[in-house]
Design brief:
2 copies of one chain form a homodimer.
Chain A: H1 9-23, E1 36-41, E2 44-50, H2 59-67, E3 75-78, H3 92-99, E4 103-106, H4 118-125, E5 129-132, H5 136-142, H6 144-152, E6 156-164, E7 168-170, H7 182-194, E8 197-201, H8 202-208, E9 233-237, E10 256-260, E11 273-277, E12 280-281, E13 284-285, H9 287-296, E14 301-304, H10 308-316, E15 322-328, E16 337-338, E17 355-362, E18 365-371
Parallel strand pairs in A: 3-4, 4-5, 6-14, 6-15, 8-9, 8-14, 9-10, 10-11
Antiparallel strand pairs in A: 1-2, 1-3, 7-16, 12-13, 15-18, 17-18
Helix pairs in contact in A: 3-4
GO biological process, one term (chains A, B): riboflavin biosynthetic process
Keywords (chains A, B): Hydrolase, Metal-binding, Multifunctional enzyme, NADP, Oxidoreductase, Riboflavin biosynthesis, Zinc
Protein name (chains A, B): Riboflavin biosynthesis protein RibD
Chain lengths: 378, 378
């Protein structure tokens, strides 16, 4: 396997196209990664494909189907190492081999321990020229949720918040509607739709009677997918079993997981509601344990929309990978409510530095994206 | 005077050049406005000038000096209506007339009641074709301090703040060094250098032992001026006469004005320190009265660098025209200190909407500029 190969300008263009294709699956592939594939012969694209839905064809399969017999002698550009194992579909490495592809360039090696280099090895053993690492950073960013789950057994957490310019989320009396404008709220819907799950605390559900679904009619008309959108799973941390089936949350027929410390069998829940009992910490759901359990349930990327207490606790424990904060051009003053509640800091040197990865004007508001580590930036 | 004249593409280009020239004076012309002038004949620029220092030649005088006898028959593009009165220099309208200019296009009419259309009238009366309103918005933004003083008898106030992403300026124990990075602090020096004055409260001076001068060595090397920079006047609100001459502030030999409610004659001040007694409000300096007095002293644009109390009071009274907030990618939590202290708001509908005019990455930090009115945005 040649790792230090010099890629050509054309290689870059075809891989960039494969990444564009991969992105088309970002509303639908969970728990699988987003993958795109381009087949090229004589400098021309003869087949393209991306992974659309778990259980359906992988990107390579779709590209090979489009190329047909032309695939013989072609080069495959694929954003993730072709799989080597029988999952819900046969291994793609075998498929590329059988189709007579003569070269395979992968953007990155599959972090899935079931694959992890085996896919490229199958190809190399069959005399196919293989290389990896082309536009690797971009490919990794596209699947940072899947990557984190595979590498650390934890989901990638993006924490969304909305505040005034002086960092306040609500007036002292609790009024918070609306700090940000309609464009920012629409933008949130687009992020929700791309997430595997939306996570919040019982407080948010009880105080706002929030439904936490994707409001399809608020999404932009030109979505980069033609597939029907799925509703992300709604996950609520409810340590004290305060939720009741009458809440608006439960009026939407779509999967809900309640994380609690003890099962309360006195309530009747709809069939799409399940409970997970999580170990306790200080009589509440242990957040680290909860996230590990969610990773085991194959949640890659979780969108956290919580209040200052839960978001603060998760910040304190270093469980948040990325913050997306919408700042509205308003000032609410010191009596208003702070963004994040966590234990007093006493030394500026001990305060973590985040990295700003983006700053954008969304309607009348500003959206700032800040990541805990540089390499998790979008 | 033809106000609804259709300006040509060439007219726009020459006026844009005049505005660029005007900007070169923005570190030095106070209390005068920034003005640029371009003289054009046969489609060629034959003279350029800008106003550099109060008491020295106006933009038109400098452009006419460069053009010499060629000025006869030329068109003048000037970012502000030529003056009609004898100030420290003779009226420019007369100068343009005498030089034989045949057309004068002004970006805006002079808001100075001593001019206010009289300059253009002198020219029109002499048979010179005149027009105004070309790139008017840009010209107005350049001199929004001068404009506000002329039109409202008040200085334009830009309030600078630095905070963490959750809107906190310091830890609970007071530690605030450094929230933002060196690039942001350098950026502040550039704004200070362009201001007529830096305003703060005695608290900030006492707590930080702040000098509040422009640190010339922290400015970018390629400043858009070759003139020696002046130090902005430092203005301190000290209602209770708590300042003492031993403070670092007074070690820099450059004008300082102390605003107080009563003169304290027990202290010996350096010669560059003066006091203004301002009417009281709740036993403190009446902020509105103070700003009016500063406008009378010809301060156009004041850079406010104050703590949460003074900046909060000024926000509450609607005295701030623009906020420049540097957000560092850090999170300090709810116990840390808030950006602005002011009376509790109880209704979200009553909260003023600002307008975001800019959002920029400055080193590792973000600078957000928000204005109180759209038409004061930079």
């Amino acid at each position: 396997m040649s790792q230090n190969v010099l890629f050509t300008e054309q290689d870059h263009q075809f891989m960039a196209r494969a990444i564009e294709l991969a992105k088309q699956g970002r509303f639908t592939t969970t728990p699988n990664p987003n993958v795109g594939c381009v087949l090229v012969k004589g400098g021309q694209i003869i087949g393209e494909g991306f992974h659309q839905l778990a259980g359906q064809g992988h990107a390579e399969v779709n590209a090979l189907a489009m190329a047909g017999s032309q695939a013989k002698g072609a080069t495959a550009y694929v954003t993730l190492e072709p799989c080597s194992h029988f999952g819900r579909t046969p291994p793609c490495a075998e498929g590329l081999k059988a189709a007579g592809v003569i070269k395979v360039i992968a953007a990155m090696v599959d972090p899935n321990p079931q694959v992890a280099g085996k896919g490229l090895a199958i190809l190399a053993d069959a005399g196919i020229e293989v290389a990896s690492g082309l536009l690797e950073q971009q490919a990794k960013l596209l699947n940072r949720g899947f990557l984190k789950r595979m590498e650390q057994g934890m989901p990638f957490i993006t924490c969304k918040m909305a505040a005034s310019l002086d960092g306040k989320t609500a007036l002292k009396n609790g009024q918070s509607k609306w700090i940000t404008g309609s464009k920012a709220r629409q933008d949130v819907q687009l992020y929700r739709a791309q997430s595997c799950a939306i996570l919040t605390g019982a407080d948010t559900v009880l105080v706002d009677d929030a439904k936490l679904n994707v409001r399809i009619d608020e999404l932009p008309e030109s979505l980069p997918t033609e597939l029907p959108l799925r509703q992300p799973v709604r996950i609520i941390i409810d340590s004290q079993n305060r939720l009741t089936p009458e809440l608006a949350l439960f009026s939407i027929e779509s999967e809900i997981i309640i994380l609690t410390t003890e099962l309360d069998k006195s309530k009747q829940w709809p069939h799409y509601v399940s409970h997970i009992v999580v170990p306790k910490q200080n009589n509440k759901v242990d957040l680290l344990a909860a996230l590990k359990l969610l990773a085991q349930r194959q949640f890659n990327h979780i969108w956290l929309e919580a209040g200052a207490t839960l978001a603060g606790k998760m910040t304190e424990q270093g469980l948040i990978d990325e913050y997306i904060i919408y700042f509205a051009p308003k000032l609410l003053g010191n009596d208003a409510k702070s963004l994040l509640n966590f234990a007093e800091q006493t030394n500026m040197q001990d305060v973590d530095n985040l990295t700003i990865s983006e700053c954008a004007l969304i309607g009348d508001d500003i959206r700032i994206t800040a990541a805990r580590c540089l390499n998790t930036a979008p």
